[in-house]
Specification:
With 328 residues, this protein is α/β, with parallel strands linked by helices. The protein contains 13 helices and seven strands. Helix content is 45%, strand content 16%. The longest helix is centred in the middle third of the chain and has 17 residues, at 139-155. It is globular and about 55 Å long.
Length: 328
């Protein structure tokens, strides 16, 4: 098995070494016999902070950890989609995983996650352990967040992939592992090239036009997902605003389901309102309903799994010589 890990980097000076330590953790714990070949591609979208030096410092301390370690140093900011597409061209692996420079791989083996793609799954997804850059992070909050996601996952389990994407858009991109066949399909790449920021939902919509997608759900943490001031969901600019409207309008035009159309139209209204009127968001009420209906029917992720992932996060941060404190 050859795996290509693409790290999308933009002003992640504070976090990139933690991300790299998490990849190192995966290879040292689960690939110590070198049964798998690991290629790491760092795609830096013209960071204006010390991200480049942070990568260089880490790689100088960790030579020969990976079979291939490549740093793409852009001199001009091109946006998430172009940065990703450029890195994808260099990916040589049989499996490809994209991760943000501020996110970390979990305690669970990513090699095990990838193995599910060999059993007929097009997409393998689990749950993100969300870690906030600013604020108190604790086990109960993490369990509550995952519980909410599990309820929605169970509620949509009988829906087709097409309805899931046009109705909920509920996949968490960092927690998702996608087959190379889908990621590198020319129709997906061409469609994605017309956008600058929104790479995940854009791809998922196009996947639904290519084939019937088989999704494998894992009841486990598959990514440690950090939310920072540089996260796309926190960016507020006109270009991103217009892209979000455009992609939802595209989704609206491609579905014939009346409920899907109503929910998409409502999402467009909320985007235009820039979330000033959250009480108008129909999806939020639907999610509350599903949480109430399915809260006793799900299989909770063991508390120990969350504790161990938090402990891993602390360990990786110590190795990367960071100073942020996590309250457990």
């Amino acid at each position: 098995m050859k795996i290509s890990i693409i790290v999308l980097l933009y002003n992640h000076e504070r976090y990139i070494q933690e991300c790299l330590e998490s990849i190192k953790y995966q290879t040292e714990k689960y690939n110590c016999n070198k049964a798998h070949t690991v290629q790491v591609i760092i795609a830096d979208d013209a960071s204006s902070d010390g991200s480049k030096k942070a990568v260089e410092d880490w790689s100088s301390r960790n030579p020969d950890i990976f079979e291939t370690f490549e740093y793409i140093d852009r001199t001009e900011n091109v946006g998430t989609c172009s940065n990703y597409l450029g890195a994808l061209k260099k990916a040589e692996g049989d499996y490809i995983k994209v991760i943000g420079g501020d996110d970390l791989f979990p305690q669970m083996s990513i090699f095990e996650i990838f193995s599910h793609l060999d059993t007929g799954a097009d997409i393998v997804t689990g749950y993100p352990l969300v870690y906030f850059e600013n604020g108190t992070n604790n086990i109960n909050d993490a369990l509550c967040s995952i519980h909410r996601n599990q309820c929605i996952t169970l509620a949509e389990s009988k829906l087709t992939y097409d309805d899931k994407i046009h109705r909920y858009c509920f996949f968490n991109a960092p927690a998702t592992y996608i087959s190379k066949q889908l990621l590198t399909d020319e129709r997906v790449l061409f469609f994605l090239s017309s956008y600058k920021y929104i790479d995940d939902y854009t791809q998922w919509l196009k996947f639904s036009e290519i084939k019937d997608i088989n999704v494998k759900y894992l009841n486990a943490v598959t990514i440690i997902y950090r939310r920072t001031n540089h996260s796309t969901y926190m960016i507020r600019n006109q270009e991103l605003f217009e892209e979000r409207i455009r992609i939802y309008m595209y989704a609206f035009s491609k579905t014939k389901n009346i409920l899907n159309k109503a929910l998409l139209k409502n999402s467009i209204i909320n985007i235009k309102a820039q979330r000033r009127h959250n009480y108008l968001n129909l999806l939020s009420y639907l999610h509350i309903y599903h949480r109430l209906k399915y809260r006793r029917k799900i299989q909770p992720i063991p508390r120990e799994d969350i504790t161990e992932n938090f402990a891993l996060l602390e360990s990786l941060r110590e190795k990367a010589a960071t100073t942020i404190t996590t309250h457990i």
